[in-house]
Amino acid sequence: MSGPVISSRVLRALSAVTALCSIGAILMAASAGQADAPTQQQAQQPQVPKFRRLTEAQYRATIADIFGPDIKVSGRFEPDMRVGGLLAAGTSAVSLTPAGAEQYEQIARGIAEQVVDAKHRDRLVGCAPSASDPQGAACAADFFKRVGLRIYRRPLTDGEVKLAVAQTLAAAATVKDFHGGLVIMLTAMLSDLPFLFQTDREVADPSAPGGRTIDAWSRASKLSYFLWNSTPDEQLLQAAADGSLMTQAGLIRQVDRLMALPRFETGVRSFFDDFLQLEGMMSLSKDGIIYPAFRSSAAPAAREQTLRTITTLLVEENGDYRDLFTTRRVAMNRQLSPLYRIPYGPRDWSMITLPDQDPRVGLLTQISFLALHSHEGRSSPTLRGKALREVLMCEHVPTPPANVNFTIVQDTSNPAFRTTRERLKAHLDDEECASCHKLTDPMGLTLDSFDGAGQFRPTENGVPIDTTGMLDKVPFTDSAGLGKALHDNPKVTQCVAQSAWRYAAGRALLPSEEPLMASLHEDFAHAGFRIRPLFRRIVIDPQFFAVRAPAASRIAGKPSSGRKG
Amino acid sequence: MTQFDRRGFLLRGMLGGGAVAVGLPFLDYFLDDNGTALAATLGGGRLPVRFGTWFWGCGMIPDRWNPTTAGANYDLPPELAPIRPVQDKVSVLSGFGVTLGGKSNQPHISGNIGLRTGTPSDTWQQIAGPTFDVSIAGAIGAGTLFRSLELSVDGNARTSFSYRSGTEMNPSVASPMELYRRIFGADFRDPNAAGFTPDPKVMARRSVLSAVTDERRRMLGKLGAEDKARVDSYFTSIREVENKLALQLERPPRAEACVVPTQPADLPASTDVTARQQSHKLMAELLAMAVACNQTKVFNMVFSTATADLRQAGSPTAYHQATHEEQVDRTKGYQPTVDAFSTQSMQGWADFVTAMSAVKEGDGTLLDNMLVVAHSEVSYAKNHDVNGIPVMLAGRAGGKVKSGIHIAGQGDPISRVGLTMQQLMGVPVDAWGTDEMKTSRSLSEIMV
C-alpha cells in the first residue's frame, strides 16, 4: 500500500540511465506538443479530451495518499458537472472558474501549511537548511523531486525542479523563513494544472507502428483513478518508470494487482455512487412534520447502505449485477432499521436478509432510491419511474410539455381520486402527457407503497395501494415483480456496462464506440454479469488508452488483447 | 488579461470600464458629470457604480402582479403589495418576453436562458455566449477583490445562473456564514483601518504562483480546440487569483460606508419560505456591506431556484408542484397557494431593496449607486409561460437611471433588458441577442 512517506524507490528507478532517456523523450514529445503527425485514417477520427479535472472525492483521496490521512482538506470545491448522468463524464468538459481557482488555491494553502508544520515536517519534508546547505537549495530540490512525482503523477522535468527550488528560495527570502517558502511553492504546485487535472500525454505507440497512444504516466493515472478513485501508488509509478505499462503483459500485471487489493472496492463504490447519483443524498431533506422518522442523518446512512450492499454483493462475493434487483439481502445499521421497521441489535453495519413476507426486494426498495426520487413532502411515481429509465436503463425521458396542466394530480381531497394512481390516471387522459408518463408511471406506481421518505405504507387515504405495473410489456403485481423485470431486461446490463466505460474514460460516449459497447456487453454477459471482469475488460481494451475515437475499420472486429493473460 | 490598478480605477472612475467603449453612442452617458454619484467622493475618486441581479423562481400570476397603469406611481396589484415601502426605488418592466424561434420551451430553463443570454437554448450547457452579468463583470468588475459574487440562499453551490460558457458556471456562495467567511474572513482588509503594511507572504504567493503558471503555459504547447479553450479558462482563472493577491498588496482606498459586520448565526439552508426569507435578509445585509466595503461591484443573488424550491413546512405540496397542480379557486379566480408564494417572493425582493438602501453612501444610499435587475424564469408558472416574464429594476446607477416607474413592454423581446444593462455598465455592445431576440433598442424610458 502506498503510505504517506514518499520513498525514493521510484526516483532511484528513474535515475537509471535508460529509464531517464525514455522518460526524457516522452516528456519532450509531450511538452513540446510536436506530436508526430497522425496517420490520415487517425486524423479523421475526433480526438478525445486530454484533461479531466479531479473530482472532490479524487482530490481528497489523492492528498491522503500522498501526505497521509491526517492532513485535513477543508474548503468549498467547485461543483462537478453531470454529463449523461455521470459526474465522471463531466470531468472532461469542465474547466475552472475564477471562484473555483480561488478556492483551490485556498485549499492548497491549508494542505501545504500542514505538510510543513512542526508536527509533520520531519516525516513529510525530512530535511532542512544545514551547514552544507545553508539556504536549503538541496533540501528543496530533494523535497520537490519526491513530492512532485506524486503531485504531477509523473517525474518533474529538470526545468520544473529548478523552478521549484528557485521559487522556494525567493519566497523564503521574502518571508524570511525557509519552511514558509516551501509552503508557498507547494501551494502553487497543488494549484497547478497537472495536479488538478489528470492529463493524457500523447506518444508514439510502441506496439503499433505509426500509431499514437498515451504515455506510461498517463496510463498509471487513468488506471488508478478508475480502479481506486485515487492517485497511483509507488508500484504503479514504478511500472510507468520502467516502461512496463506500455506493454500488454506489464499492463495486465498491474491491473490484476490493483484489482486484487482492497482498494478496488473503493473504486467500485465510487462508480456506483456516481452512477446512482447518490451524492444527492447529502443535500436531501424531507419535511420533518410529514416524515418525523426521517432524521437528517438518515440520508447519508441510506447512501452508505446502498454502497455497502453493492460492494458486498458485487466485489466481496463476486455476485451477478442483475441480482441486485432481486436480492433480499441488504446492509443494515441501527439508524436505518426503524425506517425499515425491523429489529436490529448490532452496534455496527452488517448484512441481513429481509424476511420473505417483507415488501422490500432489491435495490429499488432501498431508502436511497425511494427517498432521492421523491418530493420533500410526498412520493412521486413519475420521478421514480424517470430515474429508473434514465439512471438504470440509460434511456431518455423527455421533459414535460411547456403548457403542462396537472391540476387533478394535486387535489388530494377529491373523493374520486384518493390515491396517487387514481390522480395520475386522470392526468393520463391527456394524450400529450400520456406519451411520456407511460414511460415512467407504470413502474413508478409499483413503488408507491413506499412514501416520500421510503417507508412502507399499504394504503393511501384509507385505500389499499394498487402496486400492479408494467415494464417494457412485462407485467407484475408488486416491487418484487418489478425487480424481476429489471433483472431480466437487457437494457439494465447494457446500461451499467456502457456507464462503466464512460466513467472509466471520463467523457461522453463517442458514436464510433457503439460497437465496442456491444462487445463489452457480450463479454459482460459471458462473465455472468460480474463487475470485476467488466472493469478488467474495460482497462485492457486498447481504446482505453487511445487518443482518438476508434476508426470505423477497427470496430467491426473484436479487440484482440483483452481476455487472455 | 488586462492589468489594472485600484487607484487608477478610482481616479478614472467609470472611464475604467468605459474606455473600451470609445466611439459608441452610449459612452457620452458615462462622461456626463451631472450624476450625483460622480460628485460624491471616495478615497479621492468617484463612487463606483455597481450591478447585480436578483432571481426568484416560478414567476407570478399575471393578473395579480402586472400593474395596469404605466409611468410613475404605478398601481400595485396584490402580489406586488410587499414592495409598497420601496416602490419609489423600484421600476417594473412587464410584458417583455422570450421568443423561442422554433426552439422547444424547456420548462423553467428556456425563459431564463433567453433572458440571460439573449439566445434561447435547450440547456445551459448549450448556451451561445456568457450570461449578461458576466459581460458586465468583465467591464466593471476589475479593481475589487471579487470580480463578481454569486449567492444563493438555497444552500447549494450549483444554484447559479451566471455562466461564462455552457461548461463554466460561476458557483454560488450558498449560506450567510459562508458569505461572511468569504468576504470578511482572513483575507479581508478593513478599508478604513489606520495603518497598512503589505503582507510579504501575499507578495511571495503572488510571485510564485505567477512563475509556476508562466512555466506551465510555456510547456503546454499545441492542443486541440476544446482542450485549448478549457486550458485558457484555467489560466484566466489563475490570473484572477494573482490579480486578487496583487490587490491585497495595495492600501485599500477608504470606504466611508463600510462597517465591518459581525459574524452571523449559522442558519441551516431551508426550503420553508419563512426560514428562506430570514436567511436571505441576512445574506442581503452582508452583501450590502461587501459592496460598501469595495469587495465586489457585481453580484448575482438567487432567492429561490428556477422551479422555486419553496415550501411551507408540513405541507406535502411545494410551490412548484402547486403552480401546476393547484385548482383555480372558482370564487377567487386564481390559485391561492401559488398566489401566496408569489407574494412571499416579492417580500424577499422588498427586503433586498431595503437592505441596499439602508446603507448611506455619498449624498444618498448604496442603492443609488447600483443597478439591480430582478427577474424570474417564467410569467405564469402553471403553463411555463415565457411571455411577459416579470422584471424589476432597483437603484439609480449613480444617477443615470430613473426609478419608480412601470414600463409595459407589449411583447417586446426581453433581450432589450440585457442590452440596456450592459450598455449602462459600459459593455461595448450596440445590439444583443439572436434571431427574433436580437435587438438594438435599449430601454430609453428608464434613462435620465
From TrEMBL, chain A:
Domain DUF1592: from-to ranges: 215-341
Coiled coil: none
DUF1587 domain boundaries: 52-116
Domain DUF1585: 475-544
Domain DUF1595: 139-199
Signal peptide extent: 1-37
One Pfam assignment: PSCyt3
InterPro entries in the cross-refs: DUF1585, DUF1587, DUF1588, DUF1592, DUF1595
Domain DUF1588: 360-459
Alphabetically ordered keywords of this record: Signal
Name of protein: DUF1592 domain-containing protein
From TrEMBL, chain B:
The entry's keywords: Membrane, Transmembrane, Transmembrane helix
PROSITE patterns in UniProt: TAT
Membrane spanning residue stretches: 9-31
InterPro entries for this protein: DUF1552, TAT_signal
Superkingdom of origin: Bacteria
Name of the protein: DUF1552 domain-containing protein
